[in-house]
Design a protein that fits this description.
Elements (H helix, E strand, L loop, with lengths): L3 E2 H8 L2 E3 L5 E2 L1 E2 L9 E4 L6 H4 L6 E4 L10 E4 L3 H11 L15 E2 L4 E2 L4 E2 L4 E2 L4 E2 L4 E2 L4 E2 L4 E2 L4 E2 L4 E2 L3 E3 L4 E2 L4 E4 L4 E4 L2 E4 L6 E3 L4 E2 L4 E3 L6 E3 L4 E2 L4 E2 L4 E2 L4 E2 L4 E2 L4 E2 L4 E2 L4 E2 L4 E2 L3 E3 L4 E2 L7 E3 L8 H12 L1 H17 L1
Parallel strand pairs: 4-5, 5-6, 6-7, 8-11, 9-12, 10-13, 11-14, 12-15, 13-16, 14-17, 15-18, 16-19, 17-20, 18-23, 19-24, 20-25, 23-26, 24-27, 25-28, 26-29, 27-30, 28-31, 29-32, 30-33, 31-34, 32-35, 33-36, 34-37, 36-38
Antiparallel strand pairs: 1-3, 2-7, 21-22
Amino acid sequence: MSNYSLQQLAEEVGAKLVGDGDIAIHSIGTLSSAGDGQISFLSNSKYRSQLSETKASAVIVGEDDLPHTPCAALVMKNPYVGFALVAQILDSTPDAASEISPQASIDNTATLGANVKVGPFVVIESGVCIEDDVQIGAGCFIGKDTRVGKGTKIWANTTLYHNVIIGNDCLIQSNTVIGADGFGYANDSGKWVKIPQVGRVIIGDNVEIGASTTIDRGALEDTVIENGVIIDNQVQIAHNVVIKESVALAGCTVVAGSTTIGKYCTIGGMSAIAGHVEIADNVHFTGMAMVTKGVAEPGLYSSGIPVAPNKDWRRNAITMRNISSLNQRVKKLEKQAQEK
């Protein structure tokens, strides 16, 4: 566990230091649990009552909360971003692998850059290019002619099929599958005829992909995930989807084939986006959104139904089932009123 002085942390994250810069910090804790040698943060006003009683050695706060801070502080415009930056500095997560394991199977045509680490039982096939400082955890499979960019970290039991391109400084969590066949079939009088999926998956730089997520290869053209995208656990991205820069997709979201999602969008958990639609930049869907057509204007969109007592839900469901007939009755009454 490494120690950093508060002065060092302030310089690294661009914060204003208030108090003793020589205080040694080794980890982060919550306002209620942090103790000696730990730094905490306040970014949500509902926890403000805990600030005055915190036992942390230092806290990250905004200027408005500084008068209520009982210890040394790092003052930042956005304390939550400050927390994220300090957490990166103090991160104690181990490497995905510590060496090139003799138990790995690496084809002699594969190329490995400097400081590459490969865990046991990894399979790296022919023509693969692994660039400098890549870490590949135990049990991963890297298919033919795939390329993994500098500084990328791949956790255990991940599968990258053939001809997949992964950018620099990506993070891929365990059991993710990238480059499996998209769901492409033609129907011949009731019989399904498979369409070979010959496109690629291209993933940009600084992309993070959660555990057990699947990203299908393109049918003819490529599935593309641009720079800075973050994808949660158990997300399904179908063939020929294009996700543009800095989009965030929360867990259990499904994106059907040939859909394009614009820059800076956020997709709430358990959302479903139909195929062959286009989402504009800066569109935000709340959880359980059902997106069946394109969205051309930026903004916040919702469609999930919040939970309700069963009696209320059943009553509302009956009303929804009858809404078409009710609409016709209203139109009829309006017409009658106009004729009088």
